[in-house]
From TrEMBL:
One Pfam family hit: Abhydrolase_6
Domain AB hydrolase-1 residue range list: 8-247
UniProt-recorded name of the protein: Alpha/beta-hydrolase
Taxonomic source organism: Apiospora saccharicola
InterPro entries the record matches: AB_hydrolase_1 (IPR000073), AB_hydrolase_fold (IPR029058), Sec-Metab_Biosynth_Hydrolase (IPR052897)
SUPFAM superfamilies: alpha/beta-Hydrolases
Length: 259
């Protein structure tokens, strides 16, 4: 692919870090796609009592996306996983090409790729979006107050990964501030007309964390059109099927560039 491709910002899901995308990186590099980590402060937070969803959104927008757009003059595609969809969705507000061009900016967020991404409406917290109660595999106040972990992680996050990876994958999980799940995000960018034809949703069909039926309900709730890719994997295809996921990402990025 061309060296003028957009930067792919890797926004992890809850309990993870951008390093969770590491198995994807060789395949993305092979396709010529540059990447940038897109972490946020509620993962392994310094102070979980103040780690809100709004702070995650502001951090991703101000510290990651805007420096690429305005500092480096690079177009961006957001690759968001799970809770990263809440953060990336709101952080992309007003950064679509249509809006940025009207403001006489030369760069923009040219596409959104959600991988099992949580879709929340303006003012709707992630906890509300999953029905108002935590699923039993989210263990609150563990390993310390005001943060949570997922247990057992192989059953819910890595159900299509080899059991021999259990120890390695367990070490990759970080405590997450539950306040981030309970506080509302601002309005999502995906809802805007400027992202028409620029929304891709990788629908993980064998997901034991965000069940496929719940993902489908979120898509319908959004009331906008997504290109839906039915993907036969668990919740973490960047780990279990990195080559196949990278091929889909490259295809989607190429589609955004050609628009």
């Amino acid at each position: 692919m061309s060296s003028s491709l957009p930067v792919l910002v890797l926004v992890p899901g809850a309990f993870g870090t951008p390093e969770g995308f590491d198995k994807l990186l060789p395949y993305l590099a092979e396709a010529g796609i540059p990447t940038q980590p897109g972490g946020y402060p509620s993962a392994d937070p310094e102070d979980p009592t103040t780690a809100t969803c709004a702070d995650d959104i502001a951090y991703l927008r101000d510290q990651v996306i805007l420096p690429l757009l305005d500092g480096q003059q690079k177009d961006v595609v957001l690759l968001t996983h799970s809770y990263g969809g809440v953060v990336g969705g709101a952080a992309s507000k007003g950064l679509d090409r249509q809006t940025r061009t009207a403001g006489r900016y030369k760069t923009s967020v040219i596409g959104l790729i959600y991988v099992a991404g949580n879709i929340t409406l303006e003012g709707e917290s992630l906890l509300q979006a999953v029905g108002g109660a935590y699923p039993p595999f989210i263990k609150l106040n563990k390993p310390s107050p005001n943060v949570a972990l997922i247990e057992p992680h192989m059953v819910h996050l890595y159900n299509d990964c080899d059991a021999s990876q259990a120890e390695e994958l367990g070490k990759a999980m970080v405590p997450h501030a539950n306040l981030a799940f309970e506080t509302p995000p601002s309005a999502p960018g995906w809802a805007d007309a400027g992202f028409e034809g620029r929304r891709v949703y990788v629908h993980t069909l064998d997901d034991a964390c965000n069940p496929a039926s719940l993902q489908q309900a979120w898509l319908e709730k959004s009331k906008v059109k997504w290109e839906v890719i039915n993907f036969p994997s668990g919740h973490m295809p960047m780990v279990s099927k990195p080559k196949e996921l990278a091929a889909q990402i490259a295809k989607s990025v190429g589609g955004f560039v050609s628009l």
